Amino acid sequence: MADIKVPVEPFRIKVVEPIRQVTRRERETLLKQSGFNIFGIPAEKVTIDLLTDSGTSAMSDDQWAGIMSGDESYAGARNFFHLEESVRSIFGFSHVIPTHQGRAAERLLFGSIVKKGDSVPNNIHFDTTRANIEILEARAENMAAAAAYDPDANQPFKGDMDAAKLKKFIDKRGVERIPLVMMTVTNNSGGGQPVSLKNIKETSEVCAHYGIPFFFDACRFAENAFFIKKREKAYAKKSVLEIAQEMFSYADGATMSGKKDALVNIGGFITLDDDALAEKIKNLLIISEGFPTYGGLAGRDLEAMARGLKEGLDEDYLEHRTAQVAYLGGLLDQAGVPVFKPFGGHAVYILADRFLPHIRRAQYPGWALTVALYREFGIRAVEIGGVMFGQKTGKGKEEVYPELEMVRLAIPRRVYTASHLRYVADSLIELHKNRDKVRGLRIVRESPFLRHFTAQLEEI
Ligand SMILES: *Cc1c(COP(=O)(O)O)cnc(C)c1O
Question: Which end of the chain has fewer CB within 10 Å, C or N?
């Protein structure tokens, strides 16, 4: 057991937020009231909340100081220029267009260049990029290399695009039907796995060959750059900033949710070089988000993001962040809890169908695990499996389930300490020992889209 190092927090705690104790009985009542759906549980009734790493970061003293220096002028607030400088120094593109979060950036970019019947390839689309493409009646295509779907393939860059498949696809579909290619770093929907610089270069070359714009979905670019430094030999001696700059040098632009690697609770942006496209985006921006120097954000939010972007590249911070994920994953793995490997940048994924082999896919083992984890220990995790992605597309309209049935333990940035993670590991290990007692569920009410948010279930 000695080989799992405790990740020492590279910060001291200056402000605290209490975690309230909740009894098992209270949790039982709340589960019933919520229809056994952890999205319906009030956050104050959660002991450790690993629902998402999005917008849940703890800001630094410097970011909070920046909040106080917000310039709330309608146009040309100084904080916009700070953000512009910060983004340019990392991404290197001339236009910086703020938005209130990542999906707004996607909507504006796709709304400006994607037409009905087009296809947009990506390694694996995140839900919001997929939805923003499909709403335009275009197709979102996943082109990740096969290892992305194999939870046991211990490879360093399971986020990589299958460049040969991409090339074939472009030849078949036709260049004129592909307005852009995207690359998600790290690959969130594929277990938070990184993409190598070699693969970024390859993908960029394919796009350049056909003259197709190449954009990053850059939410976790800093975590991706850190993995490149650690795992791709040629980059071991480069700084994470230099690696990020090189990543973006192969692209035409990026959309970004600041709620991830920019360490803010709200914010996002689009950055690119193309003047004509930037003008189109800004024209759309004014209709839905606001004037181009604030894009739906307050001046103080722009300042927090300008500072957070730089902090997100701090190597002590990134070392700790990835070590936290590896620590939790390592404790579970060592105790025989089935987990997706290798561990990615922002979360540990439990293989729920292996954890609960007595529960059939039709009775949602991943969902059952999230219910048990909350009921017994007050921990909130999210199912990424049959309830989230099941589709009634079988021959007799029966449900077809996604390849992987997982539960994601997302780790908020700078929020929990090693002892919190230890508690999570101990809880899961205990639950694993008593797994026979966990029961499957059936859905009693659901909505036609994104049903996991509101579905009502009952235990079998
Ligand atoms: C979170 C996320 C988005 C969307 O960003 P929001 O700020 O939640 O709108 C897009 N892509 C990826 C990969 C993400 O993780």
Answer: N
